[in-house]
């Protein structure tokens, strides 16, 4: 498997030869605002496994966990592409809409569904959590 993608203007590109370790849709208000949509569809890969070409600018703020979330975007076209979270060290999130082949994205979980927009649709039977799911590592 090779995951490749780019921003709207093509100034930022990435390639990752490994499969995601986690993928899901976040419905929190910060993800709604930063994505401009109902949720942020994101998959996570080991940060060491992804090659990013081009300049990425990061914006930091406190996430739902209280820890810092850094959202990376192309400074030329504004496409949000990446995220890093202190609560998930060693992983980088990649916005699924930036994939060259979006059929490679398979969300496994929906989080912060209690904050979903009234017009948002969460598929029946989806693994959904009202807030952030508990950390299995405690």
Task: Explain what the structure shows.
By secondary structure, the chain is mainly β. The protein has one domain: Metal Binding Protein, Guanine Nucleotide Exchange Factor, Chain A. It is about 5% helix and about 35% strand. The chain is globular. The model has no long low-confidence stretch (mean pLDDT about 90).
Structure characteristics:
138 residues; mainly beta; Metal Binding Protein, Guanine Nucleotide Exchange Factor, Chain A; seven-stranded mixed β-sheet; three-stranded antiparallel β-sheet; 10 strands; globular
Instruction: Compute the number of strand runs.
Output: 10
Biggest β-sheet, characterized?
7 strands, mixed
Q: Tell me the strand percentage band.
A: 35-45%
CATH architecture: Beta Complex
Number of separate helices: 1
CATH class: Mainly Beta
**Helical fraction:** under 10%
Distance between the termini: 31 Å
CATH topology: Metal Binding Protein, Guanine Nucleotide Exchange Factor, Chain A
Low-confidence stretches: none
| Strand order in the sheet with the most strands | 6-7-8-9-4-3-10
Evaluate the radius of gyration. Answer: 14 Å
Assembly type of the chains comes to single chain
Order of helices and strands: EEEHEEEEEEE
Average predicted confidence as pLDDT = 92
- How does the helix and strand content classify structurally? mainly beta
Return the domain count: 1
Quick one: overall form?
globular
